[in-house]
Amino acid sequence: DAGVIQSPRHEVTEMGQEVTLRCKPISGHDYLFWYRQTMMRGLELLIYFNNNVPIDDSGMPEDRFSAKMPNASFSTLKIQPSEPRDSAVYFCASRLRDRGITDTQYFGPGTRLTVL
Amino acid sequence: AQKITQTQPGMFVQEKEAVTLDCTYDTSDQSYGLFWYKQPSSGEMIFLIYQGSYDEQNATEGRYSLNFQKARKSANLVISASQLGDSAMYFCAMRENFGNEKLTFGTGTRLTIIP
């Protein structure tokens, strides 16, 4: 089975530009999570969806960040306008709600974003 | 207060030796789950092992085992017979109250295996 797929793997952009990160969760998983990893703050949960509906976006840093999940197989995280402090690795993860080991979140390879 | 504490920022271990990575957690919930992830230099997050708070036996997965001491609120990862490929960052994480989907991560331990 394919794992979580993220694109692009690397993104370099200039301050003020719009950035869109993409994620395809594992087929059949009903939860999708967006994380950000920085040296200063570690791994932070930004937002998560259940059955395509945003459940908790309390980790989204500010209005410049938005996330959507138009269907069960695709999600986007958009930053507009981007700032240098947004430079980080952004991970998408998915999960199947169950009572066993499949409660685990499986992560994608991440997108390394650099905002100049 | 930190929910997940990993006190070892870095560790160096000789190849083939066993290694224990420490993790303590803080929660008042009765139902929670503990996870360990590995992040090699390539950057991906790889799930290693899971322990539920009601699991009576320590979780094991190949060379990985979780030393779960509920009263002490510790969930240490034990890697037996370490290999060079085990060199990576290791993160402990917790999900509190199974109705809550949020994973809280520790700051990680960088493990380096010495040949």
Explain how this protein is built.
The complex is a heterodimer of chains A (116) and B (115). Chain A has 116 residues and is mainly beta. Chain A is built from no helices and eleven strands. Chain A has strands at residues 5-7, 10-13, 19-24, 31-38, 42-50, 53-56, 65-71, 74-79, 88-95, 106-107, 111-115. The radius of gyration of chain A is 14 Å and the shape is globular. The termini of chain A are far apart. With 115 residues, chain B is an all-beta fold. Chain B is 0% helix and 50% strand. Chain B has strands at 4-5, 10-14, 19-21, 24-25, 32-39, 46-52, 60-61, 64-69, 74-79, 88-96, 104-105, 109-114. In chain B, the strands form three sheets. In chain B, strands 2, 5, 6, 10, 11 and 12 form a six-stranded mixed β-sheet that branches. Chain B has a four-stranded antiparallel β-sheet with strand order 3-9-8-7, with no helix packed on it. A two-stranded antiparallel sheet of chain B has the order 1-4. Classes of the chains: A mainly beta (116), B mainly beta (115). Chain A binds chain B through residues 31, 33, 42-43, 45, 48, 50, 55-56, 89, 91, 93, 95, 101, 103-110, 112, and chain B through 33, 35, 37, 42-47, 50, 91, 95, 98, 101-103, 105-108.
